[in-house]
């Protein structure tokens, strides 16, 4: 990470930089499943955060970096704010959200266009009045009568003094470009925090776990409860005469019940094999390396309710 910048004495803040560099933190918040991870990946221009149709896929605060022209955007993704259950896992997720919203230059408050539920209200209540927030009305492509958004928008403006309103589809590149331009206005003039080509501050080991988790959710559909997780047991780079880079990874999928284990493994191990193959192929691309990946499945019932175990699986 580069915190020095090129043209300053390392003193961050309002001081102007020789190249007029801008840099700042942008938090992406919203209830589960509104499209935060899809948005983050599109804003960064690469897959950093995993996405799935299953709510509550994102469990960590993820930083994605995009540098364009003289502006560096540092995005933080947050887990969907959990309101329904109060397990140790959910308490840990909520702490991650509350920690992030007070400490950024701009907040993107993401909702589904035309909708506002109790879940959205609970996240909105966390926003600080002194930090500018944009109302991101996502999934615009699913709204058939755009005119009906006007009364909804008036209602939203009563709820919070949003700096701007952006109706978008996170899957529409033109909308993403427009959003980037709007965000830039809110970032202070200061030296960049990262090198121009850095995409994330997450380790490759972390990315490996996320990629496996994404495939796990994708291939088990809605059958597998969200209380399953992936622990990366081994991540080792080995010298190889044949490949430029070679990485050996061993990971364990932790599930709550024997029946879940059977779901992950599939008939004759077919599902687990597919999860492994797809994860390995994407990791090879991401790391630009040959990857050997082994995945095990273990049953640990009640892990999401046990504070110590939640911590041991890497949640703060
Ligand atoms: N039609 C449509 N679907 C979208 C759009 N943006 C996201 N989605 C879909 O909405 C679902 C949830 O997206 P995610 O990006 O995983 O949502 P999230 O808010 O990060 O969810 P959590 O990780 O549960 O907090 C996925 O199926 C996405 O493909 C959009 O603009 N239009």
Automatic annotation (TrEMBL):
Boundaries of every Era-type G domain copy: 22-189
Family membership noted in the UniProt record: Belongs to the TRAFAC class TrmE-Era-EngA-EngB-Septin-like GTPase superfamily. Era GTPase family.
Keyword terms of this UniProt record: Cell membrane, Cytoplasm, GTP-binding, Membrane, Nucleotide-binding, Ribosome biogenesis, RNA-binding, rRNA-binding
Region (G4) residue spans: 138-141
Gene3D superfamilies assigned to the protein according to its UniProt record, in alphabetical order: 3.30.300.20, P-loop containing nucleotide triphosphate hydrolases (3.40.50.300)
Protein name as catalogued: GTPase Era
PROSITE patterns recorded: G_ERA (PS51713), KH_TYPE_2 (PS50823)
KH type-2 domain segment(s): 212-301
Location(s) in or outside the cell: Cytoplasm; Cell membrane
Quaternary structure and partners: Monomer.
SUPFAM superfamilies, A to Z: P-loop containing nucleoside triphosphate hydrolases (SSF52540), Prokaryotic type KH domain (KH-domain type II) (SSF54814)
A cellular component annotation (GO) from this entry: cytosol
GO biological process entries: ribosomal small subunit assembly
Positions annotated to bind GTP: 30-37, 77-81, 138-141
């Amino acid at each position: 990470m580069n915190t020095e910048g090129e043209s300053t004495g390392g003193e961050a803040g309002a001081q102007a930089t020789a190249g007029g560099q801008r840099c700042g933190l942008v938090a992406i918040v919203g209830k589960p499943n509104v499209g935060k991870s899809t948005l983050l990946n599109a804003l960064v221009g690469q897959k950093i955060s995993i996405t799935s149709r299953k709510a509550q896929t994102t469990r960590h605060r993820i930083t994605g970096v995009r540098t364009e022209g003289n502006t560096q955007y540092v995005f933080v993704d947050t887990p969907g704010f959990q309101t329904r259950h109060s397990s140790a896992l959910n308490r840990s997720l909520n702490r991650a959200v509350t920690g992030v919203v007070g400490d950024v230059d701009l907040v993107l408050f993401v909702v589904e266009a035309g909708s506002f539920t109790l879940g959205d209200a609970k996240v909105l209540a966390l926003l600080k009045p002194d930090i500018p927030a944009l109302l991101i009305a996502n999934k615009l492509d699913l709204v058939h009568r755009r005119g009906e958004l006007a009364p909804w928008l008036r209602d939203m403006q009563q709820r919070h003094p949003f700096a701007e309103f952006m109706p978008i589809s996170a899957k529409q590149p033109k909308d993403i470009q427009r959003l980037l331009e709007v965000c830039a206005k809110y970032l202070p003039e200061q030296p960049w925090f990262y090198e121009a080509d850095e995409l994330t501050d997450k380790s490759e080991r972390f990315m490996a776990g996320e990629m496996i988790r994404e495939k796990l959710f994708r291939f088990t559909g809605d059958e597998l409860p969200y209380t399953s997780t992936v622990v990366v047991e081994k991540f080792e780079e080995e010298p190889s005469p044949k490949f430029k880079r070679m990485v050996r990874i061993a990971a364990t999928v932790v599930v709550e019940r024997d029946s879940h284990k059977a779901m992950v493994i599939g008939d004759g191990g077919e599902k687990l094999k597919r999860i492994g193959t797809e994860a390995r192929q994407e990791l090879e691309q991401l790391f630009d390396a040959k990857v050997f990946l082994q995945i095990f499945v273990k049953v640990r019932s009640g892990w999401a309710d046990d504070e110590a175990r939640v911590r041991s699986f890497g949640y703060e």
